Give the backbone structure.
Amino acid sequence: MLILGFESSCDETGVALVDASGSATPRLLGHALHSQIEMHQAYGGVVPELASRDHIRRVLPLTDSVMQQAGLPLSAVDAIAYTRGPGLAGALLVGSGVACAMAMALGKPAMGVHHLEGHLLSPFLSADPPEFPFVALLVSGGHTQLMRVDGVGRYQMLGETIDDAAGEAFDKSAKLLGLGYPGGPALSRLAQQGSPTAFKFPRPLLHSGDLDFSFAGLKTAVLTQVKRLANERPEGPATPQLAAALGLAQKADVAASAQAAIVDVLVKKSMAAIASTGLTRLVVAGGVGANALLREQLNAECERRSLRVHYPELHLCTDNGAMIALAAGLRYQAGLMPTTLSEPGYRFDVSPRWPLASVCIAA
Ligand code: ATP
Ligand code: MG
Ligand code: FE
């Protein structure tokens, strides 16, 4: 069972081919990715119309590259998966349109995959795949959630952010420091030269007794600190000049302290989720899962408690086609994938705001 997967929900065009034959974990046969980060950088964030147009330009050459890596013709593909949502409507329509057109031309089934299910299952492509059940910490640019995962399609929300996502907190803090977009990786690099205890940033909801998160206050705290260091009035505007008034050491201290606050909350809440479920395995997924400090602290806490912790490979933490093809493969193996053209999954449609709950099977 060869499944070709397309990801185009935001600013990465990803295409991948997996072999989901039998019951072994699906195997990656080819994988290609184009990131639009450079194109959007000039605007300080993703420009949806530019994103859609670039997906159109990239998707077919990437598909050729994937089939070449696998040494197979397109006609060998048995099913086509695409990210149906959540994401930018125009960007999603490119992947969905190409996938469904290709499926129709080949006479093969097409299947809309939930982007977060892709992230969530991406550690299954690593050399050390997890076993069910586990607690999942999903930390991406748009989401921060703790879930109990009992199997493919069996996801129970334990807690989530009530405002900004962890990735957003990284990106917004980085922007205030003049580190460009998306600033998460740059902020974490700069933090290596700073002191994590230089400034005491808030850890909201740390003792709330539930598993929810809140990161909106961190941005304000970072902004206030940056203004203080730049000798600006607290009520003054947040301008790009603020960061320019700071020395490198000051910026590094702000970066290290902000990162420490975000990571501290993520680690403590993950351990609280483990304690409340009684499970012994933690799975981390999403772009922020690439963060070195987060991995270091989670590894230490899990070792102390004799827990197993699993991550996606570094290059599969952020958006990619492999996780979409994989999620389709795992769903197929679990009997959850439509296998004929006439089934409802075979439709040219997208769902920019698609709740994960709607792809769950009853517990
Ligand atoms: P979603 O999946 O919720 O729709 P997304 O697809 O934009 O959002 P991802 O691609 O999973 O999110 O992750 C991107 C985010 O990960 C960005 O916010 C980025 O700054 C952050 N990120 C990537 N690498 C690191 C890192 N090393 N440290 C901290 N943050 C990081
Ligand atoms: Mg991205
Ligand atoms: Fe994503």
User: Anything to note?
Assistant: Residues 43 and 181 are 9 Å apart (CA to CA).
